[in-house]
Amino acid sequence: MFTLNELITIGIPCAPGAEEFARFAISTARKTALNSNRLHFHLAIPENCERNSYDSLAKEYNCHISTVDITGLPDGRMKNGLAHCRGLQILYQSFETKLAILCDNDAAFLDHGWDRRLVNLLSETVVIVGTAYLQTPVEHLALPQGVAKPIFKYQRFPNVIACLFDVASMRQAGIDFLRHEQMAEKNGFMPILLDDPELTRLAGVPDGAFWLLDTGFDLPVRVRKAGRDGLALPLQSMTESGLLAHDLPRRMTDGTVLPGGSEVYCLGQRPMFSHFGKASRRSFQSKEAQSWVDAVERWIGDETRWKLASEGTQ
Q1: Domain residue spans in the chain?
Q2: Is domain 8-306 annotated with CATH 3.40.50.2300?
Q3: CA angle at 141 for the pair 136 and 144, rounded to the nearest 5°
Q4: CB-side exposure of 194: number of CA atoms within 13 Å?
Q5: CA 20 to 30 Å from 236, out of 149, 185, 252, 263?
Q6: What is the pLDDT along the chain (314 residues), one digit of tens a residue?
Q7: Which of helix, strand or coil describes residue 263?
Q8: Residue 205: CB atoms within 10 Å
């Protein structure tokens, strides 16, 4: 469908103080792409960010920068999440290339040749490829009857930690990242109980469970309703995949955060992305962040090891 020379815009929504994370994301994308000249970068930063450091980053990598209006957002923990949604929407609406990536500022590209490999996975049916949520509840909600119901994020479909997609197909599906803010205003960030079999199927959430309406919550619903689908790259433990053992600390499948708290997402046996997580609350200079950065750089730089480890996943 797309050639190796097809331009890709990488959109990165940023938070205050996250410019070094964004710089690292950009550098890993460029280092591991077969054709880095096809990559364009666009950052979305909240208006309360220190602009000088981002301007320096934009000059270094010829990035475009858009400012996110955070007027009217509530103070507190949810402010960053809603600003993130507004940033995603600005980036998504701005894309002029046929292919685009949305990724968190604290994501890293691990696979040499990811641009060819991921693009080749797109088809008339599969219009988005990317990282997936754990297939376990994020928590349980206690009900008045004394019953605890599990709360899930959507399942077996790419999320916006890092995803590549066909821009036209996503727009035809009616994707709008501001729906998270609209739903938050409507139900106060509370998850909703799924009792509609069709919605349960589209979201991939178990029947009778609660659905957490987080960022991009209706991506699988709208894409699947449009007759298309996505390919999810699961979060894999190092012991399950046999890869990167003791190199990239990760979040365990039960949600327990190990030192570093980072995650690795694989295509078969091939590590594609890593995600540090919660960068808005953790400094790039912290011990945990630097441990993650060092591990990613060792993996990218060890050609023999990553070629052998990912053998068989073309």
Answers
A1: 8-306
A2: no
A3: 150
A4: 23
A5: 149
A6: 788 889 999 999 988 888 999 999 999 999 999 999 999 999 998 887 778 888 888 888 889 988 887 776 666 666 677 888 889 999 999 999 999 999 999 999 999 999 999 999 999 999 999 999 888 777 777 666 666 778 888 999 999 999 999 999 999 999 998 887 777 666 666 788 878 888 888 988 888 888 888 888 889 999 999 999 999 998 875 434 334 443 444 443 333 333 344 688 888 878 899 888 776 667 888 888 888 888 888 888 876 555 554 554 44
A7: strand
A8: 25
